[in-house]
Design goal:
It contains one helix and 14 strands. The protein is rod-shaped, with a radius of gyration of 33 Å. It is an alpha+beta fold. It folds into two domains: 1-62; 65-208, 6 Propeller (Neuraminidase), CATH 2.120.10. Strands 4-5-6-7 form a four-stranded antiparallel β-sheet, with no helix packed on it. It has a four-stranded antiparallel β-sheet with strand order 8-9-10-11, with no helix packed on it. Keywords: Coiled coil. Residues 3-40 form a coiled coil.
Length: 211
């Protein structure tokens, strides 16, 4: 009687073990399916991300520079580049960037008043040039506003006590000379569509015609 009962208990235990093994196998199979699905989703998202990055690179090279928006971050030493609708294209390093920034021909040009430098990087953050302006200005001069004319020449406002000047540089950062002497207290500068240079000088706006 006891032997027969033991046999029945052993058979029942074996059935339970088999059932558990089947459940474990089922769970392992589901885990494998989930892993495969996760891997597929990850790969699809990677492909989507890479395609988006490729489209961004294509867009930057094919879009006119004046349709893009650049935002400088002085505290982060970086620039964010945006499409006309405000969507972000990329962020790029911009060492020593401060308050003034301009764009021309897929280049970003900015000044640093403390270090008296004129800096240029491309749309991917690669350095094009970094010019020490110290020898081109008076000792206490501070570089401020910057802009480019239609041929890419660079103009930099230098705030002095007095005089304040507008300096002229070539598109590759070579110093050409002083374009305007004694222009008040220049900050922001820009060119009009007609080629006139507009200078925000303290409490006045000055317009200089090309001669």
């Amino acid at each position: 009687m006891f032997a027969n009962t033991h046999k029945k208990i052993s058979e029942k235990a074996q059935q339970e073990i088999t059932k558990i093994q089947e459940e474990v196998a089922k769970i392992q199979k589901e885990e494998q399916k989930l892993k495969q699905e996760t891997d597929r989703i990850y790969k699809d998202r990677v492909r989507t991300f890479e395609a988006a990055q490729a489209n961004n690179r294509k867009e930057v090279t094919q879009t006119e520079h004046n349709n893009l928006i650049a935002v400088g971050y002085k505290g982060k030493n970086e620039i964010s580049l945006h499409n006309p609708d405000g969507s972000l294209i990329r962020r790029l390093p911009a060492p020593m960037i401060e308050d003034y920034l301009t764009m021309y021909n897929h280049r970003l040009i900015y000044t640093n008043w403390l270090n008296k430098r004129l800096v240029c990087v491309d749309y991917y953050g690669a350095s094009v040039f970094s010019v020490d302006m110290t020898s081109n200005m008076q000792r206490d001069g501070l570089s401020s506003g910057v802009c480019c004319d239609s041929d890419g020449s660079i103009y930099v406002a230098v705030y002095g006590h007095p005089p304040s000047n507008i300096l002229h540089y070539s598109p590759d950062g070579k110093y050409i000379g002083c374009a305007i002497k004694g222009c008040g207290y220049p900050r922001g500068i820009t060119f009009t569509s007609g080629g006139d240079l507009v200078v925000a000088a303290g409490e006045s706006i000055k317009i200089y015609h090309r001669v």
